[in-house]
Write a structure and sequence with these properties.
about 140 residues; five-stranded mixed β-sheet; about 25% helix; alpha/beta; globular
């Protein structure tokens, strides 16, 4: 039997079972037919976060940020590049802590940006502060 992974659709939030050897073949959601991977971070909210955390088999790397934060803006292009390089082996996501204060509180985000790596629904790494691309890739690759 072929190994598979559950991937939650960023558009309709439906879980999709994808064979591991087909993850790189631009899979589409079985429900809404949208692409499961877009080569860029997805946006998560208080309403969508838990489904991606608990239902997906992919490691989840979250950038907790705010639009007024200068270091967040400096790190954003590196996070975009990391998503393009790491998909489909990991899901990169952004959480705007101004719009989703519940998530910031729940995870004790006291400074932004803060990057958190989740695996199997559990936090495995956390790095506060802005990072350049090599630092970000090292953090992610050492935990996924």
């Amino acid at each position: 039997m072929t190994a598979s992974r559950i991937v939650v659709c960023p558009s309709c939030q439906s879980p999709n079972r994808i064979p591991v050897d087909r993850l790189g073949d631009r899979p589409k959601c079985g429900k809404c037919k949208e692409a499961l991977f877009g080569g860029r971070p997805i946006t998560l909210t208080d309403q969508t976060f838990d489904k991606h955390l608990s239902r997906s088999d992919l490691p989840l790397v979250v950038d907790f940020w705010a639009p007024w934060c200068g270091p967040c803006k400096m790190m954003a292009p590196f996070f975009e590049q990391a998503a393009a390089e790491l998909e489909p082996s990991a899901r990169l996501a952004k959480v705007n802590t101004d719009e989703n204060p519940g998530l910031g509180q729940r995870y004790g985000i006291s400074s932004i940006p803060t990057t958190v790596v989740f695996k199997g629904g559990r936090e495995v790494a956390r790095q506060p502060g802005a990072m350049n691309l090599p630092q970000l890739m090292q953090l992610i690759r050492s935990h996924v």
